[in-house]
Each structure stands twice: as C-alpha cells, then as structure tokens.
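Case study 2.
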Amino acid sequence: MEYGTIRIKLDDLLKESGLSKNMLSHRAEMQRTQINNYCRNQITRLDIDVLGRLCTVLNCEIGDLLEFVPPTEKEK
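Prediction:
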C-alpha cells in the first residue's frame, strides 16, 4: 500500500527569494551537497534542525517548504 509522499519545495522557494544555493548554504551553515539533495527531493529522513535553519533563512513557514502529495488511486 502506498501512503503518499512529502515533497520538499526548496528549489521553488530559492527561485522566489532570489537566493542562490551558495548563499543559502553559507547563511544556513549547511553543505552545498545537502542543499542540492533537498532541492532534488533526495532526502529519505527529514532533519528538524535543517528544516528550522531553512525556514529561518528563507523567512518562511514549514508549510511553505513541505507539501504532502497523496497517493494516486492506482497506488492505493
């Protein structure tokens, strides 16, 4: 049974904010590879410290950063 997934919208937020990945990595004190993984939705376990850093630097709410994508009828 499929339960849906969480989509990380970091790439969209970066485009809206005008920040580069390099600037975000410096301000959030994160490695660039980690930023890239979040932008590509290649994260299997979310880190609440990282989410807090991203929300603080991007001045956004957690709901702006994460989105629940329900399963399709085929996947249920």
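The mean pLDDT is 94.
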